[in-house]
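Q: what does this look like with flavin-adenine dinucleotide bound?
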Amino acid sequence: MASAAISKVVWVNGPIVVGAGPAGLSVAACLKARGVPSVVLDRADCVASLWQRRTYDRLRLHLPRHFCELPGMPFPDDYPEYPTKRQFVDYLEAYAAQSGVEPRFNQAVTSARYDKAAGLWRVCAEDVSATSTASAGDEDVVTEYIGRWLVVATGENAERIVPDFEGMDEFAGPVSHVSEYKSGEAYRGKRVLVVGCGNSGMEVCLDLCDHNALPAMVVRDSKVHVLPREMLGVATFSVAVFLLRFLPQWLVDRILVLLARVFLGDLEKIGIRRPSRGPLELKNSRGRTPVLDIGALARIRSGDIEVVPGIKRFFRGGAELVDGRRVAADAVIMATGYHSNVPQWLKGNDFFTQEGYPRVPFPDGWKGESGLYSAGFTRRGLSGVSSDAVKVAQDIAMAWEQQTSSR
Ligand SMILES: Cc1cc2nc3c(=O)[nH]c(=O)nc-3n(C[C@H](O)[C@H](O)[C@H](O)COP(=O)(O)OP(=O)(O)OC[C@H]3O[C@@H](n4cnc5c(N)ncnc54)[C@H](O)[C@@H]3O)c2cc1C
C-alpha cells in the first residue's frame, strides 16, 4: 500500500495556483504582468490537459474566437472564427511561453488547508509522473507547498461523470466516456449508443455518422435547448450578449427560443423537447450549456442519428429504454459530462459548495477569505475565466505590493 508522508517542503513566494488550464495560466500570466511570481501546479504533464488529452479530434471552439481570448493576448490574425482544438492548444502553449509561466507538472494536489496559526496555505501534491512512482517504490512522493495565497483553478470539468445503469456489467461491448473519444474511425459500421445530448454528445454522433457508424443518441427526459450556432452569419452567442445589454435575461431567453424555432424548425417532431426554463437561465443557474448546432440536427432529420429516450437498463446486446423499446448496440459512449473535484482536496473551508462551485454566485465568487481565490467556476466558459483571472490577479497584486512595501 502506498504511503503519503511529506517528502519535500517548498516555500512559495507568491500565490500557489492549482491547475494549468486556461484559468490557471491566465491568473499566473496576469500576476506576472504585475510583477507577482507564482507557482502553478497541475496533475497532468502538459498545459490545458482537458484540451490536449480529453477532447475529440474534430473539436473547435463552440463560441466565436473573440469570446475565448485570454487576458493580454489576442488570437493570431490568421485563426478562423471558430479555432480548432489544435489551434487553441497552440495558442495556450504560446500564451504560457510568452507570459513566462512554467507550471510544475505531474503534481496532483491531494489536500489544501489553511494553517490559521501561521496564516499560510499548506498544499500537498503527489508526484504522479511515471518515473517518480517507479523509482520511489511503494512511497508516494509528496511535496508540501506553503504560501500566503491559494488560487483554485482546477475547472468545472475536472472529473468525468459516469452514471451507474442497471445491468451495465452485462453489456458485452466496450463502454467509454466521451473524454476518451478521439474519432469515429474505431466505430466504423458499428451501432453506437451515445448517452447524453449536450454539445459533446451531438458532435460525437455527427462524427460517428461521418465515419459510417450508426449512432443512437439518448436524450433523457427528451429535453434540451438546441440553438443554431449562427443566424444569417451572426453568432447566436453574440446576439445573446448584445441583447443582454438592454433586456432582462428572461426576455432574451424567450427571443432566443423564438429565433431557434424560426431557424431550426419544430424539434419536437424529431424527439427533442425544450426545457421550460430558458437556455441562459439554465446555463447560468445549473451550468447546462445549450447545444449550438453544427449539423447534428440535419443528420437526425435524415435518420442518420436516431434519437431515443432515457435508458432503463442494459442487457448483453444493448439497452432497454424507459418507453419499453429495446435498442441494439455494439458500443456505448457516455457523453454525460464532468464535475468539479475541489471538495475532494480543499479541506476545512466552506467557500465551495459540495458540488465544488463557489457558494457566492457570479460575479462575486472569485474571492474567499484568508487569501483564497477561485478562477474558472462561473459557468461562463472562457470569458468567465478571463474575468476571474484579471480580478484575482489585481487583488493579490495589491496585497503583494502592500506586503513588499511594508517590508
Ligand atoms: C469539450 C469542451 C469544449 C469547450 N468549448 C468551449 C468554448 O468553445 N468556449 C468557451 O468559452 N468554453 C468552452 N468550454 C468550457 C471551458 O471554457 C473549458 O472547459 C476551459 O478549459 C476551462 O478552463 P479551466 O482552466 O477553468 O479548466 P480546465 O481546462 O479543466 O483546467 C483545469 C486544470 O486543472 C488540473 N487539475 C484538476 N484537478 C487537479 C488536482 N487535484 N491537482 C492538480 N491539477 C489538477 C487539470 O489537469 C487541468 O489541467 C468547453 C469545455 C469542454 C469540456
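The CA atoms of residues 10 and 141 lie 13 Å apart. The chain has a mean pLDDT of 94.
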